[in-house]
Specification:
alpha/beta, seven-stranded mixed beta sheet, 24% strand, 356 residues, VC0802-like
Length: 356
Amino acid sequence: MSVELVPNAWLVYCRAGFETDAAEELSHRAKSIGIKGNCVTGAGWARLELPAGEAVNDLHHHVPFASLVFARQSLVALPPLALSREDRLSSIIEQVRASGWSFETVWHETPDTNEGNALSRLGKSLDRPLTTALKKKGALRRKAGGRRLHLLWCAGDQVQIAMSFPGNRSELPGGIRRLRFPSRAPSRSTLKLEEAWHEFVPREEWDVRLAEHMQAADLGAAPGGWTWQLVQRGMYVYAIDNGPMEKSLMQSGQVDHLREDGFTWEPPQRLDWLVCDIVDKPARVLAMVERWLVRKWCHEAVFNLKLPMKQRWQEVSKRLAQLEEALEDAGVKGQVRCRHLYHDREEVTVHVRLRG
């Protein structure tokens, strides 16, 4: 390749089945800053392509990874590369050299699908000879600004080569945070709240923002998957649900189980945390959470919004805009973030931290 390649695509990973939602989000974010592109999707990924020769770097820089909902990873990508099964390395090395990229590490990744998982051995087998060759070419080196080369293997003869930048990417392989289910927890839903804390609360702030003796409310608590996480952090919990709670939680002395309606219950004083995983229409859940936040009944909140079968990005963006507008109209300052977490299914997790 004699002509230098320009990365003209914004590539994101996502949960299989949500590729259209991720693509719609990319298009929306691009249009919001006056950029139009063509979206292409595949199993577990979506990419927004600009015309050939038009670099995507500015677009990628202007849309922080932390602001994306359906993306697990955010990358600047080169055109998809078809490979010869007899010699995969030569084409990869040639494309990397043509890009002029330099980087400190190389990650081989696959889509989060059964077919993708079956390709993981291929990346491992090619890793050593590829890194050796890239070092010799001067592309892989020690000091390259923390940049990372990603190879997304979509098939044995097809790879997408991309770059990530520190501060604007996930630091997890595939953008997936895999957590071990604690055997003493009442339900697997406990992992949703644990992952949310990892996602939205910096680990170095846990001892301050998730501290012992804090007070929290868990709306729709039964059987206690989210309450269990709060209790493990040493918090006192108002568990609001007409259903039964796990007996071991009640024996902790840290839980006050109130058989009341989570949509109408009001706390006796301002709490540190509100958490909620009620299965109901997003509009109804959001109206309830808005009331809590506008009245400043909590300092921070984590709650899930169940998604419709279709137009999921439109529903999410509409509800987030509604929440931010409600806070602004009430003169309440707060940071709103939303993510389709690995342990989420047909829902997204929203975090709000009030200021002052």
